Structures
1.
Amino acid sequence: IDPVQLFDPQTNTISNLVGPAGDILAKALAIFDSSLWLLNTTEGGTRRPQRVRYCDQGDITEWILGTAGFRDLLEGAEQLMCGRLLGSYLILYRERGIHRVSVSDSQNLRFDIDHMIPDNGVTSIDAVIHFEKNRHFIWGRDNFYLYDGGFELAPIGDPITKLVFEPFFEDGTAGDVMFAAEDPSQAHRHHLVYFEQLNEILCVFQSIETDDLEYALCWRFSENQWFTRKFEGRPVRGADSANPFIHIAWDDLIGTWDELVGSWNDLVGPVGTTFPIFASSVGGTNDTPTFQFDVDLTQDIDVDFTMVVETKDFSEYPFHARTDWFDIRIGGTNP
């Protein structure tokens, strides 16, 4: 694992972040009160799984002087997993325990860190996602919850807990023959995807039947209903949503460049509805790392996601192209 790294736009270089004891490794990062927070650190080769370290306010290179500092959360031995903003708070999640960080009114402390939930937590850095109305959706240790920053968690996954958290009944028989329970040894791979336009949150996990992230539970929060999903042969490693537009192609332009009304990369739309785009891995059913999931079909059928990149010919003076960062991965039968 690489140390935390900084990008310098002046020199266009990347270098390791230097802390009080040299290079710092961190399990997760967060931004709060104009400071970068490092969670669950390794400093000078020594692991600090309960430590949070923050830089000087507004200065990502200063970790000793000014308002920089650290806190060790010693209320338990469990490690910190992630941090998420919630209104005016930063919520810190550990394997067992949830803490709320606020800016302190004390002259001796920069932050107040309160231990809000002592008996529950998360097992993945991606098991928390910001939800509507300043709430977090949490993949907890024994259920799915909504959290508003207080002293209680609101369980919402009771109808499907046996599908995920209780795979076997007391007599040892399988909890549900239609859906495979999660593999507890792979709980660190849990991740959540929030599709706001579809009113859905997708909970992706590896089951005891597979060796990759091919199963998911979908919570449609507008109706408070749960659905099961299986992505056969195409593990879901990341996701986002897209809205189809009609692009203006160069062949559709009329007149000279100077006569063009509007931007050269104008879009007409949107057309259709928002749909999920999933990032998989090469080696699946179709060897396609990115695919579109059709939520309107009765079966879980995926289709390849395609796109077209067009640009003006900048080879003649006085036109110049500036590309601070431009990555393209292209495949197909027609080069």
Note: DSSP finds one helix and 25 strands in the chain.
2.
Amino acid sequence: EAIQTYEALRTSWFGEAYEYQVLTALADVYMQANQPLQALLTLKRLIKRYPNDDLAPKIDAKMREIFFATLKKAQVQHNISPMDILILYKEFGSLLPKGEAAVEITSFIVNELMRAGLLDDATELLEGRLLRYLQGEDRIKSIIKIAHLYIMNRQFAKAIALTKSELNTLATTAPAMTEPFLITRAHAHMAMSQLGTALDDLQPLTSPEAERLRATILLRQKNWHMARKSLEKLVDPATATPNVALETVLDLASVYVLLGQESALEQLLTTYAPVIAASPLKAKFELLKPSKNDALNAPGQYKNLLNELKGYLADVQALKLKK
């Protein structure tokens, strides 16, 4: 009721002597009603109406305090929708703190915008504000995030150009930090269906992450033999690894089926039986096991199953990229 009353007074007393007091009181009531966005909009209107007032600096300071406190609270309580966070950023981005204090709060806004699929806005904020405050590894991680945002937004050329620029710098200043950029560039080339170029990006890399991406590209090329070698580096049938990725076991099982390698398939499924048993895809793995009827010699029987498996793997990759 107080908000309605003050809003009515604000309209009827526009330009009158009491307007200043009405707007100030309205902002206070909005804060008491836990509506910080409306409070900020009211204070913004107040400063716009009275820019030369002696209290203008105090109002500006109050707006910064409300803005910062609202986002800090949202980090903990998640009580503001990503759309309202976008409005806060668009309307009051100038209130963002400076220096190191900006990093945490700006990173939060970027992550919320990404979560809502507002990729252009997240990229703008990351590039335009956050990077200027970051150095070293934090800066590298943020540049990688920008490149991934470009990829998610299907701006592959921008992602490649960005990683190329950074690689040229890192080649002389920090060669050990080049791997994440090469992996990101390989993702961009893969998304553009430039699979050979993507493999060239990964050529010097031997980490599990690079090997997993290499295997994915080889599978897309239907290069089953090379894909098998790459996957076997990640999944050693001789030693069960409890935390091996289910999709990797599934990929390798599918390759063994396609190549008709019955004994290797059976050993793989036996070795990773505990991982498979805990999976919702257990039934599909059971269908992969060789039967007494020598089902591996009848590939038609596996056609629908393999299509399901490929669809599952594509969904997993899409979900991972989105995250």
Note: Residues 291-299 have pLDDT under 50 and may be disordered.
3.
Amino acid sequence: PLTKELIPSYLCFAREAFGEASYQSRPGFLRWLYDESPVDGARISDGKVVVAAGEVVGCYHKMRLPWRFDGREDIVPSPSNLFLLERNRARGVGFGLISETFANHKHLLLIGSGPAVQPIYDRLGARLIKTHWLRTVVNPLSAPAFLALHRVSARLADLSFASARAIAGRLPSAGKLSFDVSVAGREAAEVAEMLVRGARARMHLAWSAELVRWRFFSPFGPRHVLVRIEDRAIAIVSLGSARSLFVSRTVEWYAENDAAAFALSLATRALLTVLGVNVWLAMTSDDRTASQWRAAGFWSMKEPPSVYELHKPRELAFGDVLLNGAGGDSGFEAMPLE
């Protein structure tokens, strides 16, 4: 397990594995994910590492989230950021890291899995969850400018995200439409209620005001903007960098009908255009939501990641599940620099 004593070695490893400016190499990421989490059981030892000659050479993180299914609430972790330095990829080490991360959990959601780990997940009895991964271009002409900014300094790029978020927070409400970069107790509770309402009878995240504030609006966590049309529709989008582009991800979404969804899409696109976002990404397991996004100009990714559910015993199943990006590490690249 990851310990306080191993954090300096882990941060050095993360800079080599994920990049000097990566969110994984920022101390604030560990603080937010483990220390600040309001979810029962969350702790620094949830992160698993491989140590060789006293140095961290591999990791697998894990975010605990409360889900409601079968009439009850349970913690379902979502592992992410599996990485092992190539020089340390001896036979069985990667499988051992995965097994250690999965140990002692009855249920797991494996979101954003690539082809390299799919044989291992199949071996463990994981089952595929149908998901839609979509994208659309917002500001293609600004991409070269942001790329140049990113190459000059990750700090400058980070300041551009902070500035964009500040602009979004100062935009005036336009009738029924509002933009927010932080939420107080009452509004956080309203957002939680709307997200749960949209799930209907399906398995869904057990949103609460506290969980909404931590996942989306913590001063230590990834930066998000809330776009809201009264109690009819909400979108929560991240603002960060991916592959040297200014990227926004829809991490949560609720619309009471298709008309509200289209209005929400137009408002969100207008916001992201003003902020200078290059690409807008989204993931959902909900067919209706995916159709709403396609109607707003999104198209499917050609080779999307996969999503699995894993249980002990294997014959257990979630059934119909509502899963959006917030259930995993979507938007984590919006983590601020210290």
Note: The chain has ten helices and 17 strands.
